Each structure stands twice: as structure tokens, then as C-alpha cells.
Amino acid sequence: MAESDCTFSVFDPPAAFGDKRRGAKLLVFPLVLVVAVAATAERQLDWWETTIFYQIYPRSFKDSDGDGIGDLNGITENLEHLKELGIGATWLSPIFKSPMYDFGYDIADFYAIQDEYGTMEDFDRLIAKANELDIKIVLDFVPNHTSNESVWFEEALRGHEKYYDYFIWEDGTVDENGVMHPPNNWVSVFRKSAWEYREEVGKYYLHQFVIGQPDLNFRNPDVVEEMKNVIRFWLGKGVAGFRVDAISHLFEVDKELYGGRFPDEPLSGGLNGDPDNYDYLNHIYTKDQDETFDMVYQWRDVFDEFAAEDGLTRVMMTEAYSSPQLTMRYFGEGDREGAQMPFNFVLISDVGGSSTAYEIKYALDKFLTFKPVDKLANWVAGNHDNNRVASRFSPELVDGINMIVLLMPGIAVTYMGEEIGMVDGYVSWEDTVDPSGCNTDDPINYWTVSRDPERTPFQWNADKNAGFSSGHKTWLPVAAGYETLNVEVQKAVERSHLKVYQQLAALRNQSAFRHGRYESVAFNSDVFAFRRWHKEANYIVVVNFRNQPYTIDLSYFENVEGHLEVVVSSIQSPKKAGDVLEANRAEILGSEALVLKV
Ligand SMILES: *[C@@H]1O[C@H](CO)[C@@H](O)[C@H](O)[C@H]1NC(C)=O
Ligand SMILES: *[C@@H]1O[C@H](CO)[C@@H](O)[C@H](O)[C@H]1NC(C)=O
Ligand SMILES: CC(=O)N[C@H]1CO[C@H](CO)[C@@H](O)[C@@H]1O
Ligand SMILES: [Ca+2]
Ligand SMILES: [Ca+2]
């Protein structure tokens, strides 16, 4: 690799320190820096460090057989779409056997493919095709729970001791009237008690998510080993890694420390007076327990055994909506390695359409500031649990957000559809299927928590069902406006979100974006800009978050003066590639986003 001599190749500096930081760091950590520089000088970047990870929600990507549900063959037949975008890896939401109470996040058999998605042979063909195209396949690993219709849970209910101990059981409490209640006040993420009674065994089982998702007992060594075998099974089939679901919920407090019963969680402090609401409690006993991090490191050891055998690094991404301090612990501790990519959700959790440029900068700085100096950042603006960028920010900001996700230092992650700026679909109460929406029992306000709108079928073209399916009915309705907002149209026209995305993906190959350093500034409450540079290469990205024009003095940045050339512009911008701006008085139009070359 041409750039492998770069001193700072894997060290993205935290924002805003500019060139001064190198000196400052030398003063503080002279030894560490010298060692690090020597190590990186020889180091080539691995496949996962430079690529873009594209999340496919298989149920909604492409239906190959007309039953209205996306499937594996639909993915295999359309992997070229990823290739054309410049993407080298995809992570798939769960494809395993499931009764679908939570659309695959409730797994009945970790070793089998869900029938409606295809067969194991289809999966092998997907891997073969992906290898042909040099696209890595990452699967979803859902260790916290199984389905209540898994063989394990069914055996547990039948009193099979081995499987009984796979789950977490507790006696109910009986009040003065002899009425039985759940063991304690724990609330499920999807509302209401986290405990469900089973007559067969006369006890309650714990489910941190829906009733159909009994939590596995990770204090049982058999469970630990079983789940490692699941990892081994799929890595052995050629999978390049796992994205680990809901990791912070893995362990609950050790009840032996509390007299053998799980203690109540304290109230969060009246922010929400509804005891069925997850936010009613402060989850000190059911989230982010210390043992969770150790388990992640143990899994990484399994990954590394495979890498040692065939030379392919297996990548772990962890999903945790936690504080930055806790998020960073997933990277590893001491001499133990953990996940390469603890997901960075700031663009989802911390900012939205009404955020100022100051808040955007503050949010983007967060991960860069807290992360270990020898690890990479990652950028995630969407997934199947959160409203789409066009809906959460605005349709005008789709290109601007993609510029941030793809050009900030580190690894980019794109949820399918964000490359064409898909918007949330309207899903009526009658059509709502997401348990998060259904559990509200509220036909008026369900949509505020339903995740169906961001899961509507992928928009391929203007045909029936947006080209997603030839069937009569699709599992969720296609979003309005697909006739003009689709892949085919965006490939045909001269300027589109898709074309911008392709340009950005290609730019990631430039040394400035691959190895370059980073500084950022909010010029005012609306305009955010950052610079990436490496040796002679020097780029500026400007995003105007409001529909109001400004004249900006970009010579604020060091080594930025004279003419700046437009490299990429958001689609509503009148500026074209090759146009020239004056650094000291750059006209930035409302909602405009630009990549400029110095
Ligand atoms: C599993 O849980 C779901 C609720 O999520 C329930 O409707 C279903 O009946 C349960 N299945 C069994 C076998 O208990
Ligand atoms: C980046 O460069 C690699 C070769 O170094 C090439 O295979 C790949 O297609 C390029 N990606 C883009 C998006 O241009
Ligand atoms: C983003 C994501 O994958 N969220 C999942 C977290 O885990 C629950 C339960 O498995 C799922 O419902 C979410 O979709
Ligand atoms: Ca299908
Ligand atoms: Ca758990």
C-alpha cells in the first residue's frame, strides 16, 4: 500500500488540536508516541480499516420469489449494487430460524437459516458470490436471548435441567391477598415487566426485550461455550465477523450478592412517571455489568483463532448505547483485545434536525476524544432501529451527512437506503408489525416508537413495489415517492445522492482521508466544517445545516488560502465539480454541503 509509511496512519487525532497536537502529545507521552510511530511505519491497513460497512436488513432488501419478504437470493443477486457504490463489506441483520416476534432478533436456532429467507445452500452461494466480488459478509450475533420457541427454551419448560439452566428464572412475589406478582420491578426495553410467568415450571423467566426473547444465563459456563460454538460455526463458513446485538444487556447483576434474589432497580428520578416505561428505572443491575466486557474479550480470542489459521481478520462490532467511557471498554483492556468497532452512535443519539453546528461538532468530537489513540473511530448515522437521515435531519442534508460519515477519520457504516436518501415510510396502525409499536396499544402515538418506518422495502426502481418484490403484498408497505426516489433513477441522472455517495466512497481511497489528520470548526450555529490533510493533500468539507446562505472565511484553517476547487457538491447545490471558490470568502448556500480541495 502506497500510504503505509504514514506516521499517523491509524491515529486519528481528536478534533480541534490541529498541528499543535503532535508537539503536545510528545510532551505528555514521549515513550508511547515513539513506539507507536515505529510500529505504524511498517503497518499496512487491514481490509476492515479502510472499507465501508453496509447494513442490509434482509427482510426489506430484495424479494427473489414474490412472497413479499426479502431473502438471501435477493441479496446474492444484488451484491453488485454494493460493489458499484464502492462498498467492501456488509453486515446482515439476523437471517436465522425465528418465529419473528422481533423479526429475527428472537432466534429459535442459531445454526439454521430462516425458511422464508432461504436455505443453507443459498447462504453458501451468497458467500461464494461475495468472495467473487471481494465483499466481506458480517452476520448479526444475538447472544443476549433466544426465542421462546427455541428448542433450548422448550426443553427448559419440559424440565430438562441442562436447558433450564440456560435461562434466568426467579420466583414471583406473593402479596397479602395471595396474588402473585413478578419477582421485582425490572422493565423490558419494549415496556412492561421484564418477567414472564411459566406455569410449566412455576417460575418467571427474565426477558430484557420482548416476551418472546428469554435472556440467556451467561453465568452458566455451558451457555458461554454454546455461544462460542455458534461463533465458530459461522466463522467456519467464511463469515468475516459479527456485529453483536444488544451487548450491554448481556449480564445481570449476580444475585448471590443480594441474598439470592435480584434486587429492584432504583427509579431514574421522575423524568417519566410511567412505570411501564423502560426509562422509568436506572438500569444499574441489568446493563453494562463488568462481566460483559470480559465476555467480549473471550469472543475476540475465538475470532483471532480463526484469523491465525487463514490470515483473514474477523471483525467484531458491538451495539451499545452507552456512555463514551463504557463504549471504549469494548475495544479492550490491558493486554486483552475486544471489538474493533464499538459502534459510535453520536449521529443517532446526540444530534438531529434541530441541532446547531456547535452541537454537531461537540457530538463528533466525543468518540475521537475518548477513544484509545491506537484504535479507529467509526461513524453510524442510521440503522433499522432509528428514523432515516432524510426524516431525522432533512432530505436536503442527506449528502452532508454522508460526507460526514464517509470522510471523517475512521470506518464508515451505512444503513441500506441512506445512499439514495430514502425517507421513513408511513405505516398505518393496521399495518404496524414492530413489537415496539404494537406494545404501545396506542393507535394514535404508536408511530413515535415503531421501527417499521425505517424498515420499509428498498427502492430499486419505479416498478410495482419499487422493484423490491413481484408479489401482491409486501411485508411492510413501500414508502411513498419511490417512483422518483430509487436506485435506477439515481443511476440515470447526472446528479443524485447515489452519485455523490460513489464520489465520496472513491475519495476514501485518497491518502488525506485514509491516513490524514483532522480538525473541525463550527463557523456559526449553522455551518460546520472540517479539514483532512496528509502531506500535500488538503481537503475541506463544509456542511450548512440550515437553509440560510453564508459567506465563510475558510482561510481560518491552516494552509488554506487562495482558490479552492469543488470536488463534490450536494445535489441541490448549483456548484459543480471543478468550480472554484475563494478561500477567504466562500459563498455557502442554504443546506449546501461541499468537499473542497485546497
Ligand atoms: C412466545 O412469546 C410470544 C410473545 O412474544 C407469544 O405470543 C407466544 O405464544 C410465545 N410462544 C410460546 C410457545 O410460549
Ligand atoms: C480504492 O482503491 C482500490 C485499490 O487500491 C480499488 O480496488 C477500489 O475500487 C477503490 N475504491 C473506490 C471506491 O474507488
Ligand atoms: C440496532 C439493533 O440491532 N437493535 C436491536 C437490539 O436488540 C433488540 C433485541 O434483540 C432488537 O429488537 C433491536 O432491533
Ligand atoms: Ca422472498
Ligand atoms: Ca441478559
From TrEMBL:
Glycosyl hydrolase family 13 catalytic domain residues: 55-455
One Pfam family this sequence matches: Alpha-amylase
Keyword Hydrolase: yes
Presence of keyword Hydrolase: yes
Gene Ontology MF term list: alpha-1,4-glucosidase activity
Assigned keywords, A-Z: Glycoprotein, Glycosidase, Hydrolase
GO BP field: carbohydrate metabolic process
Enzyme Commission numbers on file: 3.2.1.20
Catalytically driven reaction(s): Hydrolysis of terminal, non-reducing (1->4)-linked alpha-D-glucose residues with release of alpha-D-glucose
Protein family membership: Belongs to the glycosyl hydrolase 13 family.
Identification of the protein by name: alpha-glucosidase
Organism: Manduca sexta (Tobacco hawkmoth)
